[in-house]
Amino acid sequence: MKQVLQVRLLPTPEQASALLATLHTCNTAANWVSERANAQQIFGKFRMQKAYYRELRSEFGLAAQPAILVIRKVAAAYARDRTRRHRWRRDSAQAYDVRCLSLRFVASGASSSATASIWTVRGRLTGIRVLGEQARGDQLRGITFGESDLIHRRGVWLLALTREVEAVTCRPPADFLGVDMGVVNIATTSDGVRYSGSRLNRYRRRQVRLRQRLQTKGTRSARRLLKRRNRKERRFATDVNHVISKSIVAEAERTGRGIAVEQLAGIRERVRLRKPQRAALHQWAFHQLGRFLGYKAAGAGVVLVEVDPAFTSQTCRTCRYVSSRNRRSQAVFMCGGCGFVGHADHNAAGNIADRGIARWGEVMRPHAAPTLAAS
Predict the structure, then answer these.
(1) Cβ(168)–Cβ(301) under 8 Å?
(2) pLDDT at position 371, please?
(3) pTM greater than the 0.90 cutoff
(4) DSSP 364
(5) Taking CA 119 as the corner, what is the angle to CA 115 and CA 123, rounded to the nearest 5 degrees?
(6) Which among 259, 258, 245 has a CA at the least distance from the CA of 293?
(7) DSSP, res 145
(8) Which residues partner with 334 through β-bridges?
(9) Which of 25, 77, 149, 319 is a Cys-bridge partner for 160, taking CB atoms 3.0 to 4.6 Å apart?
(10) What pLDDT, on the 0 to 100 scale, is given for residue 277?
């Protein structure tokens, strides 16, 4: 299983200048390769390397391994989509491997510090400070990294380090914890725990009002403040999703259960909302929360399954009566068959948990199980 660790670099002005020149050169080289590969319809990595490797090195002054990494980046882009010519910004991220990047750790008393050694177009840079707490330094020590990315984002230098970690063997679940996702309540579990989205929604409304005021003002200081606040809302929402997913996985691990979530692919196309509600739907990171649940569950050895979300909010968990009238409001569920009354999201999470049990049976016995849609 791959894990990505992001660390921040603190280069000196001279080192930062060399790193920036490297990004510019590598991305210009990638655009050069992309233009020729698209025109000549040469898309395979080895065919690109045979056709452009020598000319690429002589044209841009790249060392052997960085030239191969540039070609690999272009080939990967065309492997995903060959219908258009791919281009990269001058400061787009650049991939590195162990031949071009290494970390060195120095222990000083009870703490430890790290420095990076990175290839650049101006020679090998050593002693670039790596910012991080002692816990992160201990986490990085003694680990062999695979391909990593050098990122320059708004004046900040980052390294996204990729490493292979041994997958934890998933324990057979005794039951499933269902998770219903929404906008009013970001997540509701079948145990009745609700993670309200009111704080996040209030924060987003405040950010919208602030952006509108600054855009209306239009002064230089207002534009500077807008630029400084860029991505702040996204980071806030990411932190909320991290906290929620960590709590759900910890509860499932503690109780020996698996996690069942609804399939969220295509939710923006399926759901029809009024215009004031569309912004909330499109701003909320449905896929991100599911992704966080996935990798945290895999790291903890917790089984995670996806189930068909059809009619989970209209089905009574007690008697299985299905009707659109059962959902009286966003929060109230009242069954027209047996008279059961409860919170709508809690009821939906219970249905998702039940479908998780059926789905787990399909996974473990595929030859004897019904289809996912039937379950």
Answers:
(1) yes
(2) 47
(3) no
(4) H
(5) 110
(6) 245
(7) B
(8) 341
(9) 149
(10) 53
